[in-house]
Amino acid sequence: xxxxxxxxxxxxxxxxxxxxxxxxxxxxxxxxxxxxxxxxxxxxxxxxxxxxxxxxxxxxxxxxxxxxxxxxxxxxxxxxxxxxxxxxxxxxxxxxxxxxxxxxxxxxxxxxxxxxxxxxxxxxxxxxxxxxxxxxxxxxxxxxxxxxxxxxxxxxxxxxxxxxxxxxxxxxxxxxxxxxxxxxxxxxxxxxxxxxxxxxxxxxxxxxxxxxxxxxxxxxxxxxxxxxxxxxxxxxxxxxxxxxxxxxxxxxxxxxxxxxxxxxxxxxxxxxxxxxxxxxxxxxxxxxxxxxxxxxxxxxxxxxxxxxxxxxxxxxxxxxxxxxxxxxxxxxxxxxxxxxxxxxxxxxxxxxxxxxxxxxxxxxxxxxxxxxxxxxxxxxxxxxxxx
Length: 387
Fold this sequence. Notes:
- This protein folds into 2 domains: about 5-60 and about 355-385, Urease, subunit C, domain 1 (Roll), CATH 2.30.40.10; about 60-345, TIM Barrel (Alpha-Beta Barrel), CATH 3.20.20.140.
- A hairpin with a 2-residue loop joins strand 7 (about 70) and strand 8 (about 75).
- It has helices at about 35-40, 80-90, 105-120, 155-165, 180-190, 205-215, 235-240, 260-265, 320-325, 330-340, 340-345, and strands at about 5-15, 15-25, 30-35, 50, 55-60, 60-65, 70, 75, 95-105, 130, 130-135, 170-175, 195, 215-220, 245-250, 275, 290, 295, 300, 305, 310-315, 365, 370-375, 380-385.
- The chain is an alpha/beta fold.
- It has 11 helices and 24 strands.
């Protein structure tokens, strides 16, 4: 594997930015981050690749922990080839890793989707598969949104889905108010599955009980969950009130009003907020019928909707989400934290999400107009406009 220097960029990771900085990659890992002044004093071996990024941003690779499809390919295809095509397309947009998200559906269809992702794992040429996100099936029938169905809590069904996933299920959306949810939550915690409250009609007390059982993350905040009420704060209120509860946001300006995201961040620690796309199969698709989970959808106001007007999902990309957040007066450092360090830490992905020596060399380089110039996955360059 090549030794690589990215030089003369602005390194942005976490709360800080460092202008005129350089990142050194060796054996697929971040080996050093130094100033341009120090780099110029170094003797660079002939077998080292050096890319002058000419002032562009150098950031950790973007992590999308909630995405159903991209560029005409989706988890609902039940084919490993579709997952591999998603991987290649996502890397062109700065995503270095992702959690393919399986729709809530009957056991057979969910199992087929899970097995297709497992078959693709380790074979991706673009973004890396970190784990599988199950958006159900143990969700509220009152808050289905675009999901294909729901199921009462069934521990045997959960065990069968876990077996099909061969240990790759990393996170799962559940409704905390469902009967026997505590038993399910305790079982999932033992398996290392991060549980997210979503597609839920939970009362505030249900959310507290869920947190005590290990449900400490939440799915697409404000969407498909019980609303804030002055006598029952519901799921929305619980997420805003409880500092230990983390949440996803879809920053497309349609799923959540920008002012509400600003309100959320005035009370919620920024390290508890995760940017996701919830992107559907036709996202970035240039031609053909727009299908999501087997149904035709309409592209209206930058989102996909069912013919009855119900939101089917997003057409957002991670980089567009970052651009939107910055346009809403959120610092770039914080926007990038939501797209890199936060999902890595909250979902338990070690050595991801930061430009720190010893971490995987997952890197995104982009210009001031948010155009992706380079994407690197574990030191492997999968997009390069500097060549």
